[in-house]
Amino acid sequence: QILIIDFGSQYTQLIARRVRELNVYCEIHPYNNLPEMTDDIKGVIFSGSPHSVREADAPQIDQNLYRKNLPLLGVCYGAQYLAYQNGGEVLPSEIREYGRAKLTSVDANCPLMKDIPLNSQVWMSHGDTIASLPDAFEVIASTESVNVAAYRIKGEETYAIQFHPEVTHSIDGKRILENFIVDICGCAQNWTPDAFVDSTVAQLKEQLGEDRVILGLSGGVDSSVAAMLLHKAIGENLYCIFVDNGLLRKDEFESVLDSYKHMGLNVKGVNASSKFYAELEGLTDPEAKRKAIGKVFVDVFDEESKLVENAKWLGQGTIYPDVIESVSVKGPSATIKSHHNVGGLPDYMTLKVVEPLRTLFKDEVRRVGRSMNMDPNILNRHPFPGPGLGIRILGDITADKVRILQEVDHIFINGLKEHGLYEQVWQAGAMLLPVQSVGVMGDERTYEKVVALRAVTSVDGMTADWAHLPYEFLQEVSNQIINRVKGVNRVVYDISSKPPATIEWE
Ligand code: XMP
């Protein structure tokens, strides 16, 4: 594997993604909390950082831990750090070095630069520049304005690049990473979804033996794939619980439960809708609603798990981005956060936690699911919030309002699927507004509810843009909703981006 040392750059996770796309396993560790060295680490990458090497509190590391023992690649801050620590000069850039640049010279004999053409576009993003290099260092690539765009240290396998090979704007960036990882470090490209399934299942068998595991399924990708891996490892000793909180999509409980059973999972569906509705009665504040939903979930889950005698473990679908938070400026305390799907679990549940996906990114979770032949309907599903329709019904929640919103949502989502638009948007849903408006149907005046449709494009949900759905499609969906859903006489489409709006309305 490759060890990535994080100095806090926003791009560190992207380096990891690129390494894994080359079918090589890698892990990110913060510079101030380094892992034990093991024989399977074949090379090290120093990431970028929002800091300048010239700052008094710039992130520091003992470079001799790795240098000369293993191939080492410094990226951006990593490059400046290695140069600066060894007597090179790093100064504030006189001209802005952000954005696209072209390589005007490349050392074709350097293994890092193998097959990288002249004029290859690279992506720069740095405020400091390497003004001069120490003696044993030699330049292996330059751009028009940056002489030291890449360098190596003579007599050792240490390389550094000023630009960002991990972003797609660096056209040959992936090739540079491949040169480092495959040619220089000698990593075998055998970390595939199939290999992950085999090794994880073997590991889980060893870790869990005959123990019983409880897992809460949500219908989403992560918990489903985690369950499938555990199922392969321990079969009937995995007890899955799928709670109907009365806030799921139309027919979702039955259809998802059905596909879980087809997958061979030992799953119990628990219809607890009335408990959720009772706790939610009269609540209008979004946070109060979230808390109420979280509380009932914990109660129901706790009650159900007590029925599984002798359970030792709690399975969770935690994924890699939940585990590593870039150290950024916050320091090591921000590196790990515990993750619970809905509201957290009570302290008195003394189960040990098993998280088979904790090293995977979301797209890797899907690939692993595909390699286990899981239902594409589950794998390609849009994200759906834990509190479900509870935060899409603005104001208080009643069973009646849930039924109306389920119908509206069903027409919208089915429409997206039928028009081949579902996969083009990242998330979609409908909001029931606490507003009535006047309409006219036939000869009659109506005074009924307004719904808002929301569809967004996004990469990770942190930022999002409203999806530019075709007008004809919106028109068709609006007609269907107003004609078929009793109680709704007006449909609007949300054209706000995040930020400043959020994806959900509550
Ligand atoms: P916002 O509305 O903050 O949503 O832009 C970003 C993503 O998070 C989901 N979301 C939630 N998921 N519990 C969840 O499990 C919640 O309370 C919650 N609130 C928002 C939202 O659906 C979107 O994908």
UniProtKB/TrEMBL annotation:
Reaction equation(s) it catalyzes: XMP + L-glutamine + ATP + H2O = GMP + L-glutamate + AMP + diphosphate + 2 H(+)
Gene3D superfamilies according to UniProt: 3.30.300.10, 3.40.50.880, HUPs
EC identifiers of the protein: 6.3.5.2
Transmembrane regions listed in the UniProt entry: none
Keyword terms: ATP-binding, Glutamine amidotransferase, GMP biosynthesis, Ligase, Nucleotide-binding, Purine biosynthesis
Residue positions binding ATP: S218, G219, G220, V221, D222, S223, S224
HAMAP family: GMP_synthase
Protein name according to UniProt: GMP synthase [glutamine-hydrolyzing]
Source species: Aureibacter tunicatorum
Phylogenetic placement of the source organism: Bacteria, Pseudomonadati, Bacteroidota, Cytophagia, Cytophagales
Gene this chain is encoded by: guaA
